[in-house]
Amino acid sequence: MRSSFLQVLALATIACAAPSSRSTHVLHEKRAAEPVGWASRRLESHRVLPIRVGLKQSNMDQLEDMLNSVAHPESESYGQHWTPEKVADFFAPSDNTVEAIKDWLMSSGFTADRVRVSPGKGWIEVNATVAEAEDLLNTEYHVYTHPSGHEQIGCDSYHVPKHIQEHVDLIKPTVHFNHRLPTYPMGNKREYHLGQPSSVNGPKTLDTKIEVEPTMSNCDQFITPDCLRALYNIDYTPIVPQKNSYGIVEFTPQAYVADDLDLFFRNFSSRQIGQRPTLVSIDGGFVQTTNQSFDLNGESNLDLQYAMALVGKRQPITLLQAGDLPQGASFDNWLDAVDKSFCTFEGGDDPTQDGIYPDNLEGGYNGTASCGIVKPPHVVSISYGQDEWTVTPAYANRQCAEYAKLGLLGTTVLYSSGDDGVAGGGGVCLTNGQPDVNGTQFAPSFPVTCPYVTAVGATQINPGSTTDDPEGACEQVIYSGGGFSNIFPMPKYQAKKVNHFLKNHPPPYSAAQYNNTGNVRAYPDLSANGANYVIAIDGGFNLVFGTSASSPVVGAMITLINDARIAIGRGPLGFINPAIYSDLFSWAFNDIKSGGNQGCGTPGFNATEGWDPVTGMGTPDLSLLLPLFLTLP
């Protein structure tokens, strides 16, 4: 994006409230939730905006079937993952779609030299004044200002001509409004975006240093790598680590502390002292050391200490560090780096949600946006999330499709399911779909509700129990996020298991509390321990809790399975959900039958026999999963 547009966006936030609708225009998107506590004013008509039209991709109706064809264990083409070129070609917008949007823009007064089509044909960009944009989209643009001084681009609604609606996924900047204020005071910096680390969606801690020596006899109080190995029968040494890859995504300013890694390794994995993850800098991402605290180091320290210890010294870990210090990054930014066709450089990102690069803020990253700079790792773990109500269905579906494409390429994408049970981040629930501190409607998370990622919930060793005893759903400090999406339909792979739950263990809640239609995406998919993790931080040891811990642990186990498959000439697992929900694999999980995920003034759902919306299919047993996956081609 040109710097002049960044200056505009740094100064102003846009919102659209539709005036009288044209006869040829129809509503295309409406803001998911109204901003609370923000004042608004009309944006000056001469300001210039970078309007981006996300074009409707081809063959989206075949996306689930194509993914199942390479991911379902009963498919004849299991494991036959696609090339990036095949993915890009198969889903590229049609020439008719490109021409329809170009004709619309030029008939609206934009000359051909102002209209740019991205190389992958996924986006069309035109630089428009506010007056031109308002006329084009039959809307009004406003600047929203928060008492803190932050300004935000948002949009109430916008319209497009009826005859071109079928060619449009979404248009930016329009309705996507970032409600979260920064939790990291850095002075005169741009507001932090949804999905970035904070004390709300990071791991929780009791904030007391550990004085007791952790041993295998007290794993119910202190989880260490050895406890996890015992719980999930993790006993495998990588054979071909140079052919395998495991990526951990972190968002600046969250960063690991090298001395803390060594302190952890000195106590729990001595052969790894001095070992570091391989850094891939996305949009200026770096391991910042200027500001250190639990909120800034807890997540990254946790993810890397346990991921690295469980895969062992031989297997490198890739750190996908996204965003510079002034601006940060979002989920779309890391997707840009592993999928060139989705890239910022081609107009794919939203200034209200995503980091926009180059960054002209002081100390910002001035290089070219990180577009397709790294091959997707075989496994990627992300311990961050946002509330589903904060995104529009169009935005959510556009991003979700990218996770499906990564699955087609052979990548397993894991997201932690959240730590507030059936509530949203910070325990906030909904009233009529809007956030309300006194709300009683459940608030699912995102991107974890995308049916093309693997959602990881949290369990615990119950007090007084051992690693030989059944675990329960996590009810210490945090509650495993789980429930039912308000956006995504139920994928085929989970229909049998979820319908069994709904029929045999119907939740005692009405449609006023959750989406009880029985035809929507349910989560989580599986779980792992999320309580009492011993991590090294600030030169000592703390206990932390969260699905933030569960996701990298499952990622380590999938990485070990991938190594075993690659060692015998087979490929990585890629998208694992169709397999783990199949009858062939269901017995390789430890079924969790106790505990719940309270929130929104209710006990939430209950963990019970089979799949449930607290712990999914249960916790993985590597000694059972490994031979099963080795039988697949």
Report on the structure:
- With 633 residues, the protein is α+β, with helices and mostly antiparallel strands.
- The protein folds into two domains: 3-57 and 94-172, no CATH class; 204-630, 3-Layer(aba) Sandwich (Rossmann fold).
- It is 25% helix and 20% strand.
Q: Number of folding domains?
A: 2
Averaged pLDDT, please?
88
Helix content: 10-25%
Which class of secondary structure composition applies to the elements? alpha+beta
* Cα-to-Cα separation, first versus last residue: 44 Å
Organism: Artomyces pyxidatus
Protein name: Subtilisin-like protein
Q: What distinguishing features does this structure have?
A:
633 residues, alpha+beta, 2 domains, eight-stranded mixed beta sheet, 25% helix, 20% strand, disordered N terminus
Topology, pairings included?
Elements: H1 3-11, E1 15-16, E2 25-30, E3 39-42, E4 48-55, H2 63-71, H3 84-91, H4 95-107, E5 115-117, E6 123-129, H5 130-137, E7 141-145, E8 151-152, E9 157-161, E10 168-172, E11 204-209, H6 225-232, E12 246-251, H7 258-268, E13 278-282, H8 294-311, E14 318-322, H9 331-338, E15 379-382, E16 386-387, H10 393-409, E17 412-416, E18 429-431, E19 434-436, E20 445-446, E21 454-460, E22 472-473, E23 483-489, H11 495-504, E24 520-523, E25 526-529, E26 533-537, E27 540-545, H12 547-567, H13 577-580, H14 583-586, E28 589-590, E29 619-620, H15 622-630
Parallel strand pairs: 12-14, 12-15, 13-14, 15-17, 17-21, 21-25
Antiparallel strand pairs: 1-7, 2-9, 3-7, 4-6, 4-10, 5-6, 7-8, 11-27, 16-20, 18-19, 21-22, 23-24, 26-27, 28-29
Helix pairs in contact: 2-10, 7-8, 8-12, 12-15
